[in-house]
Design goal:
The complex is a heterodimer. Chain A is of the alpha/beta class. Chain A is 30% helix and 23% strand. The radius of gyration of chain A is 24 Å and the shape is elongated. Chain B is of the alpha+beta class. In chain B, 22% of the residues lie in helices and 34% in strands. Chain B contains two helices and six strands. The chains are: A alpha/beta, B alpha+beta. The interface between A and B is medium-sized, with 26 and 19 residues.
Chain lengths: 468, 119
């Protein structure tokens, strides 16, 4: 059986695509998508890097055809695709709701175009896809295939949330157990959670809170990644850990699996007892619908960001720093506590844009390669950790994941809908700062930096398209 | 490495390594993967995939092997680390393999292989 092709479209790109192909006029409009591809578990995924429209004067008058355009108008597009090793998808729209399909004329056109694209870039798939207002259908030619073939299409749009086309009807199978939760996210949202896969990287003070809450929510699959074992001094902050776990130095992954099973036996759990970025961790992360990073170093954050950008996977990062300080008066705090929650929506600002990652911060972090939360290299106690403060950040991270998967606070794919309200700079929501001494969590927002090489270079690159 | 010289360099690698040479364009950079490159006796494993990254902004190719590769004395490579590159795990290491503009890429790959035999 052939699996559906999943098409992932980043924030901003999806809005532009819809503006082009649903534009009213006296003929159909086409958009050319430059795409990479990836095999993620059993899924064939096409990752849209950008879409390019045609000028009105590039269309030709062609009675009997929805749209016709000159061959020369495609030259810059095929040149770009060839230079960057990307596939080409021709999009157009049939402006109605419900199931759609390519017309006979569309298929004949695709049968001519796709082999032409394939000759230019043989190592990538190419496709012709028609969109309705909530569905898609397409014809694809994959590397090594002689003829284009119909494949079922699922479209994943990234915006305020992850919007899936076609929407799956709610099954209400879980209704009784999650009745009060469904008042917020709906039966359809609950089904989406049950069909979703979330990877949690780092199962310490933050990650163990996250896992506990995801199990309560009814997430279908949890991918739990940590190479570490529990020690007795973890117990004050590691949710689900017993004193015996510390004495026996049990794996943190095993402790969290036990926690999940006690809460929700229906949740499937995959354990990866490896350090990021070993191959098993990378393979597992690529299969996730959302990644939540609860890691203690910036190199791991950079790796997660790269994977998230490359495979268009939302990535939520949490980090907390708390340390004692010497107050100058009795009224001042004896501790400085700060934290971040950064939610990367594919196509939006990344951790490099926010400044959490930079060459300078990475260099500084690498000066302490042996640093752990337990002890520093010179034997002094490590970074401060308090279970309740970790829990606050973890809860918000889970809220962010819940919004991404169910869209309970909005489902629009427009950039404006993801923009911070009353902010003339156009900052995108998803970068929150925590001030521990006041207990406040403020939305700062972030702007995609136009000179951010990481956003630009890595976005939707997918698997390398190896050619012999 | 300038894009114009990459095709010639890859063809030279293909003469040496045959169908084990695979090429992918990854944005501005070119990735060249040579499968199952034999390493000096004693290395564990005895063959690895070698990745050469040809980046127009870099003066010399960057080289990587599969994670966990040891030297011929069975010891881990010093100053090595695992990185994510093009969505895969690769091991980077600080062998200083000489390379000047115009040098042979096949000779560069040979020098990287031989370096694993010098603990």
């Amino acid at each position: 059986m052939t699996h559906p092709v999943e098409l992932r479209i980043p924030l901003g790109v999806g809005e532009r695509l819809q503006q082009i192909v649903f534009r009213p006029g006296n003929h159909e409009y086409v958009a050319f998508g430059l795409v990479s591809h990836a095999r993620l578990g059993t899924k064939d995924v096409l990752l849209v890097r950008e879409v390019i429209g045609l000028d009105e004067n590039q269309y030709q008058h062609a009675p009997g055809h929805g749209a016709s355009w000159s061959g020369t108008s495609m030259l810059p597009i095929t040149e770009r695709a060839t230079a960057e090793g990307l596939g080409i998808v021709v999009f157009h729209a049939h402006d109605h709701h419900g199931t759609t399909r390519l017309s006979r004329d569309d298929e004949q056109s695709a049968m001519r175009l796709l082999p032409f694209f394939q000759r230019r870039v043989p190592a990538r798939p190419h496709a012709s896809i028609v969109l309705s207002r909530d569905d898609a259908a397409g014809l694809f030619v994959y590397p090594g295939q002689d003829h284009p073939a119909r494949r079922e299409v699922r479209v994943r749009w990234y915006g305020q949330s992850i919007l899936n086309w076609p929407a799956r009807p709610a099954t209400h199978l879980q209704s009784a157990r999650f009745q009060r939760q469904e008042l917020i996210i709906g039966a359809e949202g609950q089904d989406t959670l049950a069909m979703s896969s979330i990877a949690v990287v780092g199962l310490g003070g933050g990650g163990s809170h996250v896992v506990q809450q995801l199990a309560h929510l009814g997430i279908g699959t949890l991918i739990l990644i940590d190479h570490d074992h529990a020690t007795p001094d973890n117990q004050h902050r590691l949710i689900g850990m017993t004193r015996l776990d510390g004495l026996l130095r049990r794996r943190k992954t095993s402790i969290q699996r036990r926690q999940v099973r006690r809460i929700n036996p229906d949740t499937r759990v995959t354990l990866i007892h490896e350090r990021l970025p070993m191959p098993a961790t990378i393979d597992a992360l690529k299969r996730a619908d959302v990644i939540i990073g609860c890691v203690d170093n910036l190199d791991a954050r950079a790796d997660l960001q790269q994977l998230a950008s490359r495979y268009l996977i939302p990535y939520i990062d949490i980090g907390l720093k708390a340390r004692p300080v010497t107050p100058s008066s009795a009224e001042e705090a004896r501790v400085a506590i700060g934290g971040n929650i950064a939610t990367y929506r594919p196509g939006g600002p990344c951790l490099w844009c926010t400044g959490i990652l930079s060459d300078e911060t990475l260099t500084a972090d690498r000066c302490h390669p042996e640093r752990t939360y337990a002890t520093t290299t010179d034997g002094r106690p490590g970074e401060a950790q308090v279970v309740s403060m970790n829990g606050l950040l973890a809860s918000q991270a889970v809220n962010e994941a819940l919004q991404l998967l169910t869209g309970y606070a909005g489902k629009s794919i427009t950039t404006a809908s993801s923009t911070k309200k009353h902010d003339p700079s156009g900052a995108i929501v998803g970068y929150k700062k925590f001030l521990g001494t006041t207990g406040t969590l403020d939305e700062w927002g972030a702007r995609a930096r136009h000179d951010c090489l990481h956003c630009h270079e890595d976005l939707a690159r997918g698997d390398p398209a190896w050619s012999p | 490495m300038h894009p114009d010289t990459i095709t010639g360099a890859v063809n030279e690698l293909r003469e040496r390594y045959g169908t084990d040479v695979h090429v992918a364009q990854d944005g501005a950079r070119t990735l060249v993967r040579i499968n199952d490159v034999p390493l000096p006796p004693g290395c564990q494993p005895l063959a690895t995939d070698l990745l050469l990254v040809l980046d127009p902004s870099q003066a010399k190719p960057l080289h990587y092997v599969r994670p966990g590769q040891t030297l011929s004395n069975g010891q881990p490579v010093q100053n090595s680390s695992t990185v994510v590159l093009a969505g895969e795990s690769w091991m980077t290491f600080s062998f200083n393999v000489p390379y000047l503009k115009g040098d042979s890429l096949a000779r560069f790959a040979t020098a990287v292989r031989q370096r694993f035999g010098k603990p």
